[in-house]
Structures are given as C-alpha cells and as structure tokens.
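FAQ: What does a ligand-bound record look like?

Like this one, built around zinc ion:
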Amino acid sequence: MATVLVKNGRVITADSDSVCDILVEDEIITAIGKNLPVQADEIIDATGKLVLPGGIDPHVHLDMPFMGTFSSDTHETGTRAALHGGTTTVIDFVLQKQGHSLREALTEWQSRANGTAVGDYSFHMAVTDFNPSTKEEIKDMVAEGITSFKTFMAYKGALMIDDAQMVGLMQEVKKHGGLVTAHATNGDLIDTLIAQHRAAGKLTPRYHYLSQPEVTEAEASGRFCDIANYTGVNAYIVHLTCEGALNKVRRATERNQRVLVETCIQYLLLDASLYGEEFEGAKWVMSPPLREKKDQDTLWAGINQGLVQVVGTDHCPFMWEQKLMGKDDFSRIPNGHPAIEHRMELLFSEGVMKGRISPQKFVEVTSTNAAKIFGMFPRKGTISIGADADLILIDPRKKHTISAETHHMNVDYSSYEGWELTGKIDTVLLRGKVAVDHGETKVGRGYGQFIKRGKVGF
Ligand code: URP
Ligand code: ZN
Ligand code: ZN
Ligand code: ZN
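The answer part, i.e. the structure of the complex:
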C-alpha cells in the first residue's frame, strides 16, 4: 500500500477551515488531524499553502463533433490541461445523433475517452432526438451511471429539441431519478436574427453577439423552469450568463421550485466589449455570448445569494484555423472557447483574492456543489475520510501570467493572454497520486477513470 502524508496545510472545504494533516492510503483519505503521529512513503509539506478538494468541471466538450469540425482538445489533452489547473474530474457531453440511439453515441464517446483520459471523467447524455425508442434508453443510461440528461433549446436541425420532446424527456427522467439540464436559449428567435443579419450583409463576429440578445436566454430559461416545475423533474441550467435569465430562476424560487444554475468563468470576467469589428472577436464566439458589466455583477451576487451553485467552463476549444471557417460569416465560426485549465486559478485570483467570494464559497462552486448535484458526493468534492484523495495545494501569494505559450490545452490562443493572477496551484493529487507537481505532469495517458455517478440532486 502506498501512503502519502500532506502535512500542515490550511485545509479548506465547503464548511471547514483548519491547519492539519491528511493521510492518504492508496487512493483514499484515511485520516485527518493535527500532527498525525504516522509515517508515510511520501511527505508533502503544505506549510503556508491552502489544501482544497480537487476541482470538478461539469461542463466540457472534448473531441466533440460540432459545426463541421471537432473541438481541439481530446480526452487526453483536455484532462491533462484540467489537472494542471487543479480540476481533477470533468463531466463531458455525449451527443446523441438525431435519428440514432443514445447507446451508439455512448459507445462512440467511450471509444475516445476510455484508456486515454489522464484525469477522471464522467459523461452527461445530450438527448437531441427524444422519441419512443430514446425513451426506453433513459433507464439504461441511469444504470450506466449517466444520471444527467442535457437538452439544447437552440442549434435547430443539429441538437435542438422542441417543447413536446422536452416534456416527454423530463417525465421519463423524473421516473428514474435523474436530472435534466438545458442550454436555455430560444433557437428560433436566434436563427431569425442570424438570418436577418446575414441578409443585411452584417457578417462580423459582433453579429454573433447581436443575434443572441438577453431576451433569447431569459425567455428560454423561464420556459425551461416552467416545464420543469410542471413535470417536477430535477432541473439545472448550464452556462447561464445574464440578469434576465437569473431573474427567471429567482422567480421560480418564489413558488419554492429549486432550479440549479451553472455559470461559467468567462461570464464572470469577460464582457461583450471584446466583440469589436475585427475578426479577433471570434476568439470569444461562444453561445450564449459574453454579456454586459451589469450581468457580471448579477452573477457574482447570484453566487453569494446561493442562486448560482456552480462555476464551470463550457470548455470547447478550436484552433485559430478552425475559427477562420467563419472569417466571412459569423454564423460559421465554431462556437466555443478554451478555459478548462484556468477556471480555478482565475476564480481564486479574481474571486477569493479580490474579496468577492470566500474560500468556502470557492470550494462550493468549483467542486462540492457539482459533486452533490451530479451524484459523486462524498467520493468527490470534499476532503473527508473515505473520499478519493483528490487534493490541490495552492500557494496563495504566488503570481503568474496566463499565456498560450505555456498552457497545456491543445489550442493556439488563450482567451486570457497576459492576465496576471495571484495564487498558483502547485501540486495536484488525483486518487492519492501526485498528478501535477510545479508544472510537471506525473501521471500518464489512461490514468483517468470513468466515474459512474449515482443519485443526483442537492
Ligand atoms: O459555444 C459553445 N457554448 N459551444 C459548445 C456547445 C454549447 O452550446 O455548450
Ligand atoms: Zn444508428
Ligand atoms: Zn451550450
Ligand atoms: Zn457547452
């Protein structure tokens, strides 16, 4: 049996904060206490460092076929980059192909991820074609540990389902104790605006942003809340960006409905002023688009109000050459941007170090809440006896600068080039093994395990 002792760190969970030692035996935490009187094969001195649960990013798209190409990080490169940024587990989206089964999609994704991922991973199933045979497959997916079902209310003709399919899916998922999540934007309204802009010769990336105004998200978010309330299913909105949409959730809470909300790091830190007339704005062409300063303020407040439970990334990187597919037409720019590696350090620096959120809230929104919501708690998402030893050590004063020159993601630009951050994740343990140490990767292709998830909820 291999043993590791993490000594004398400031150990922070969602509800505790104390200087102590953590003993790890093989993959599991077996003791926590002050000055543990034990020996170990490996001792990690965490004096002056913060020791937190490994991050969970529940919104990533690895090696995903989308808009005529594939996202550029594979399960290997994406999970390796995630580890470098302290994210030890990701949940990736399997996409059902319209006209085909959920099982076929799952088999395809397993063939790409199993044996290649470096960090731990799980899958959501995106239901893009709900019909009588899909309905029969829901219970099979739950039995596989895939307990969350993603819906797209936009991307008509590729991924979008209509409200009739949404009701049917929610009813079936509820029967099997799962969770329905939504990309909640009004696809028809967006497609109309895209067509109008194209017809008028308005083709720069800025018109991607102008084709998805706040109302497109607020309307769909409200509709999703209402249908979820009617069916009684566990509901979660992915990548929520704006005040109008969060107000629909706030309204739902007034009838004592619980709708879980994820925002993503970019919506807290970046805004729509990045969409100028130059093609460079394509770096941030994602859906929904970046919003306004007032929306950032709403989201930070929403985190502290407990209305926003999760900060993910929606990591969906494309090389610059892939972005150029849309150089003459914004509607052909592959939607998505890279973020998997920097979510934790960005939120730590801009959130904790700038006093916007507490260290406990940081742990909640980067790890614990996702573990609870998606059925991995307490194996993942906390530091407790019996949990997987997924730990990150942060040097809270160390400064560093983000750059595409030094990042580990398989993409040739950074959305945060030149950003100076305070707080560096120096050491990362995944299931008891040092996975990253001061910039060096210590585990290889295939170390990552599929995490079968259980009961969802909160
Ligand atoms: O622009 C984005 N978000 N690309 C990935 C697919 C999605 O909508 O999440
Ligand atoms: Zn088929
Ligand atoms: Zn989406
Ligand atoms: Zn996404």
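Follow-up question: can I read anything off the structure? Yes, for example: The chain is about 30% helix and 25% strand.
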